[in-house]
Structure prediction request, 227 residues.
Amino acid sequence: MSAELSRLEREISRCTLCPRLVEWRERVAADPPKRYAGQAYWARPVPAFGDPQARLVIVGLAPAAHGANRTGRMFTGDRSGDWLYAALHRAGLANQPHSVSADDGLRLNGVWISAVNRCAPPANKPTVGERDTCLPYLVRELELLPDARAVLALGAYGWDGALRALTALGMSMPKPRPRFGHGASAAIGDYTLVGSFHPSQQNTFTGKLTEGMLDEAIQGAKAAAGL
Prediction:
């Protein structure tokens, strides 16, 4: 990782700007479910992860309370991550199909994985103020990823956050404002924004998102990124 990206991710991991999220991330770590009893939780803001020469940036909502908030790596240690990394492996963008811990040997090729919010929020619902406080971190990451040409937004929240980040970078916004949908695509300045339903259990268990649908969205984003 580049020195500037490394400094930024260390800064992110020390952030305490949102008191409600600080309290929540630490509270769930102090009282984990039985399946994680005895494990040391990360319980801090989760830095982004991936290839510093990434052409594709994946933007999610926020860390899961017992996923990335536990393991310290985006989309790691929960069902959403199981789906995402398996799909990235099928697309040739990850060296292995699973992500269980921050030291499991996973490497990404041309991909950077980030989120709009970096702390696990209660009920997976950050406030507007918490979104706006955290969003500058995503903007700064995009500034430090000069090769990035596509953004894959996971869910409507990721889509909205990506649009806000790209606007903050000075990218020209189409009118009307691009609307989220699975497979939606929009040219935003130097980037192509692609939408996918989030690989959360409420989508994967109900069949709203299938492996084939996720694969198709990733292939579209991969093509837009020139990978």
